[in-house]
């Protein structure tokens, strides 16, 4: 989706959907940027496509991979690259930009920032529902605990004595 399509799409959806359409557009742009940066790194190390190079690095096709976008895993096709060793063998080289884009520390930093900003750790599931490291079962279990209007009652539930329980 380019800028013209985005403007057309935003004009055709109800106001309640514009945020989702815009976020989807941004995700696509970030995804495209990650792919371009990885391709640039390959060109830097291997030289231009279809041009002879004296580099020890060479292109080795592509493979499926995952990166984190807004704390969610996103499938991408990542370029593969190999390095010729002095013994005549070769080994896979992980792109530095791909390694950074899939780093879960990025997600951890976002969650820490959300908590520092005042978001309850129980509410992280609402903010990043399909993020790695956030399990829906933990969130569901936390939400099933009954909560009364008085917070002090929730922190210190009343205790009953044996005298109170006898008829």
UniProtKB/TrEMBL annotation:
Keywords: DNA recombination, DNA-binding, Transposition. The keyword Plastid does not apply. The keyword DNA-binding applies. One of its GO terms (biological process) is DNA transposition. The lineage of its organism: Bacteria, Pseudomonadati, Planctomycetota, Planctomycetia, Pirellulales. PANTHER family: TRANSPOSASE FOR INSERTION SEQUENCE ELEMENT IS1081. This is Transposase, Mutator family. Required for the transposition of the insertion element. Residues 69-79 have a biased composition (Basic and acidic residues). GO terms for molecular function: DNA binding; transposase activity. Residues 53-91, 144-167 are annotated as: Disordered. Coiled coil: none annotated. InterPro entries: Transposase_mutator (IPR001207). Belongs to the transposase mutator family.
């Amino acid at each position: 989706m380019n800028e013209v399509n985005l403007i057309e799409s935003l004009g055709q959806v109800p106001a309640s959907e514009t945020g989702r359409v815009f976020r989807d557009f941004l995700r696509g742009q970030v995804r495209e940027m990650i792919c371009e940066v990885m391709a640039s790194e390959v060109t830097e190390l291997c030289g231009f496509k279809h041009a002879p190079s004296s580099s020890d690095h060479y292109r080795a096709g592509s493979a499926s991979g995952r990166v984190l976008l807004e704390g969610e895993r996103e499938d991408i096709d990542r370029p593969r690259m190999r390095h010729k060793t002095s013994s005549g063998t070769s080994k896979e080289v992980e792109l530095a930009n791909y390694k950074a884009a899939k780093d879960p520390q990025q997600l951890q930093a976002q969650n820490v920032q959300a908590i520092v900003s005042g978001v309850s750790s129980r509410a992280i599931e609402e903010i990043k529902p399909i993020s790695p490291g956030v399990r829906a079962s933990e969130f569901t279990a936390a939400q099933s605990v009954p909560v009364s209007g008085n917070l002090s009652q929730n922190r210190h539930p009343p205790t009953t004595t044996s005298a109170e329980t006898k008829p």
